[in-house]
Amino acid sequence: MTLGDGELVEAPESVPAPPEVVPALPLPRLVVGKTPGVLTDDRLAEAGRKVLRFHLARMFAREAGTIEGVNPEDLKAMRVATRRQRAAWRVFGSAFDEAATAKHRRRLRGVAADLGAVRDLDVMIENVEAYQAGLPADESAAMEPLLAVWRANRDAARVILLRELASRRHQRWMESYAVFVETEGAGVRAPGPVEPHRVRDTMPSRIWAAYETLRGYEPVMRWADITTLHELRIAAKWLRYTLEFVREAMGPETTELIELVVALQDHLGWLHDAEVAAGLARAFLTAHTGSLADTEARAIGRYLADRERELARLQKGVGTPWQPLVAEPFRLMLGRVTASL
Questions:
Q1: Distance CA 175, CA 170 (A)
Q2: Where in the chain is the domain with CATH 1.40.20.10?
Q3: pLDDT digits (tens, 9 = 90+) for 185-234
Q4: Domain 40-185 class in CATH
Q5: Beta partners for 198?
């Protein structure tokens, strides 16, 4: 199921039983600090390796909790760690040999997809449950057919995730990936004799390229549709991660820049969640109108209307977090922090 497309996936006739949860296999031990520790004189590949090692350690730290399934924050944090690693491959990937590192990128993409399939439904279910909390008891109960489908889909997605995390293929990959992030020079593409290859030589242009991509949306912001705003959210994440990965090598103003980008990213994330929830609720009503009681159809219809109102509100208000990013003070600050490299 691709929630981002608003696609309805019916609950399976029977959700397969999850594999027996056994104690997690011992994970490779990665010793990392409180931050990745990227320095201005680091070679680009080794700076990327530091970032990958840091977030792989965080991913490992949350895997046992994700398998256990008691605290949803474990799954959320594990997914965040995979996202950071995928972003790091995008930022630093050109410094590595593509063929030598393809398996790590490919496997990371697969794990991220399995985690995301569960987490996205967690978010949708949490949203409906929060909405239910403000309803009278009878109307709250009328939302249950929608939740039943989403919960069944979530359970099915979790079965797939658990089977993958328990697989020998996953274990072998984790072991080889841990060796890769611990081994200086592994998988590195040898730069040319005069090719820029250090953080201070290469990251300013990469940061500005990410900013230019974001600022390219300025001419269309007044009439941007939902699809365009979704693309803008991706551009905001790209700028945020590029800044975050080298924030230690730049000045303290970097934190303020990141906070401004995060404000836009969060706003667009809430907009995306509202759009997905509205799309799934609409598809559910279309598919099940003949089998729903009138009270159920009305209750779910009111939830759909609530999500559409929230979507319109967020779309109308996107200028508030957007304007600081295209104002002169932001550009001046960005210039100062990149000049410090």
A1: 9
A2: 40-185, 198-341
A3: 999 999 999 999 999 999 999 999 999 999 999 999 999 999 999 999 99
A4: mainly alpha
A5: 43
